[in-house]
Amino acid sequence: MSDTWQTGPGPRRKRPDHMTIVSGMTGTAPPTAGTVMSATGAGAITARAVIRTAAGPGGTTRLETLLSDPPLTLRRTGPARVHLVGSGAGPLGGDHLTLDVDIAPGTALEIRSVAAMLVLPGPADSTMTVNARVGAGASLRYSPEPTVLAAGCTHRLTVRLSLAADAEVFWREEIIFGRHGERPGRGHSRFDVTVADRPLLRQDLVVGRPSVEGSPAVYGHARCVGSSLVAGPRWSARAVPAIGNDPPTAPVQASGDGWTALPLAGPGVLVSALAPDAVELRARLTRGEEAAERIAAGRIVAW
Amino acid sequence: MGVNHEDPHGDHVLPHGRALRLGIGGPVGGGKTALVAALCRSLGLAHRLGVVTNDIYTTEDADFLRRAGVLAPERIVAVQTGCCPHTAIRDDIAGNLDAVETLEKRFGPLDLVIIESGGDNLTATFSRGLADRQIFVLDVAGGDKVPRKGGPGVTTADLLVINKTDLASLVGADLTVMSRDARAVRHGRPVLFTSIRRDTGAREVAEWVIGLLEDRPRERHVADRTRTASETA
Amino acid sequence: MRERSAGEAALLLLADSRLPAGGHAHSGGVEEAIRLGTITGRDDLAGFLRGRLATAGLVAAALAAAACELGAALADVEDMEEDVEEEDADDACRLWRRLDAEADARTASPALRETARTQGRLLIRTARRIWPSAMLDTLARAVPDGAHHPVVLGATAAVAGCEPRQAALAAAHGSVAAPATAAVRLLGLDPVAVHGLLAALAPDLDGTAHAACASLGGARSVEWPGLPAHAAPALDLLAEGHRRNPLRLFVS
What we know:
Structural class of chain C: mainly alpha
InterPro entries (chain C): UreF, UreF_sf
Order of helices and strands of chain A: HEEEEEEEEEEEEEEEEEEH
Pfam family, one (chain C): UreF
Function (chain C): Required for maturation of urease via the functional incorporation of the urease nickel metallocenter.
Order of helices and strands of chain C: HHHHHHHHHHH
Largest sheet of chain C: none
Helix content of chain A: under 10%
Largest sheet of chain A: 11 strands, mixed
Strand content of chain A: 35-45%
Radius of gyration of chain C: 18 Å
Oligomer: heterotrimer
Number of helices of chain C: 11
Shape of chain A: globular
Strand content of chain C: under 5%
Keywords (chain C): Chaperone, Cytoplasm, Nickel insertion
Distance between the termini of chain C: 39 Å
Number of strands of chain C: 0
GO molecular function (chain C): nickel cation binding
Structural class of chain A: mainly beta
């Protein structure tokens, strides 16, 4: 069992009693071992990793829980930053991975990953589920490396993101349609975001199905799709769209080649991008993320 | 309001309690937008106006009117018609009704909402569900045979305006012929000749519109007075 | 209980492009796709329609089915009780707003939200005159600037006597029929060939309507969060680009 949970910034603590490991995997694997073990065909994995923050003294953030479960291996890499380190290759078909994230009120955390998550085929569908709750006044930045749907895989990604009314979040997802030169596997991601229990965003993205493949209405000729959601009170007071069909009078720079920053009906902006490759996808998302900041600052009237 | 089947030419009772809706239609280039601008100049001071345009390219006419400065820009709304200006004023008037009601909601009450159709052919007329009265605009440069050809626009519009009379001698159009032919097919409904380039207020057309506004039933105002009287008593 | 046998004929009326509710002025992204050169002919259009049905079409169908189910339930309450309690009317308004909020959450593009509300406003104006009902009045009151079009379509379907599956079918049909017509007008495509594309999609339309209803049952708002939310990033990009193009013939 990997054991990279830490507390901080205070002294190390014992693992709380309520923490149990769901995985059938045992042993004290090094941080990257989950990948290796799943790739050796030791059978389908069910893993649940947990990240919880708590308010530390003087308004700091303490990592109350950092529970790895291979292949979801977590490592603290900064005062308020955690990396997923065990995701170089995997999940394999049949694996069911879950990441639970709980950001306590008033705390802040950034979650990243060291490498793309390569989803490979297997005897059954693979799933990745992320449940994240962000409390009052808390903030979460979630920006893992892309998910690559290798040919032949069937993967289901589910994200449930629940925000308190004044929580702030940055959430980026990138999906690559297969490794270089190969056809994409099948993917279905579902993203549900609520703010104070009201729906902010619900999105299914389906990849590698004949209904959407090559459709100029869905991805066109793109090989990657990505989105960055920014949400929080900074996006709540926006110019209300005018009734009628008059063109916007304010200079609008919220769209560019292959990207657009979409002010949502609720307090948030969704940056959406399509691109021929992962590098270009990130560049386009970055442009959109900058536009989203300009929207928050009121420099773009989001009609 | 419903269609009055007894009276296909639309001499139905004018509305009260809302703005008069005046449709202005006619072929491309006849001067519809110029007439709308002229009416705004002539009527804008004494009446509360709104304008809906249906140009094929969304905002072309609306932009012209805004540049002309004849009406506050926000009182001009453009409606897209999906390549079918004809459909938008006759078969499926929902987009135009929405625009009219949006103007009335924003600026209401209004006295007059002018709905300018996109340039179309001689068969294009407004639904009575959209326009209470309609003007069809031709110009002399289209040829002096046009009134004789007739078509629903020429024959049934409440007012036929023949514009650009200043060009008649240049294009060889005989105004007498046009007038005679138009009167022959219109069974007594009025025809006016204009040169909006010279008469930038389209004075006679404006007077005709003022006549419509004054003809509108007064029930609402009478009722208002009655209530005031009883309250005073 | 209300008479349901009118469903099929009512479905024809609802799906008819001649229903005077402003549908003729919408291209569903086709005008912008043509401007950008991503639709140049029949084959591109076929792919466009296929993808549009699988995403925006499915979502519209699901919302329409949910709205139809809710509308029928509310109309039944109104039928049973002569005087609808004010409390019931408030509850009905709340439910309509919640369903409309679910539509908002599934429509990330502001341009598409505005389009959906404009179309919804146009349809409810038309529907209330054709099928006058307290239920449609309540919906209009609940969302005065116009509920999302699929929500209004579903409510209208309910008052016209359709089943949720029929409401879904009308929504799915509209999601491809309007763009197909727009392409005929803008590219001068052979209208028979384009209708052939729609005919080839007919089994998918049925499948979409079926899928749209799969997660429904009993007008329970608890099911709405789980309704399909299939996104089409290219449609979002097209809608935002179209909104900013002053030289456009279509509303969307």
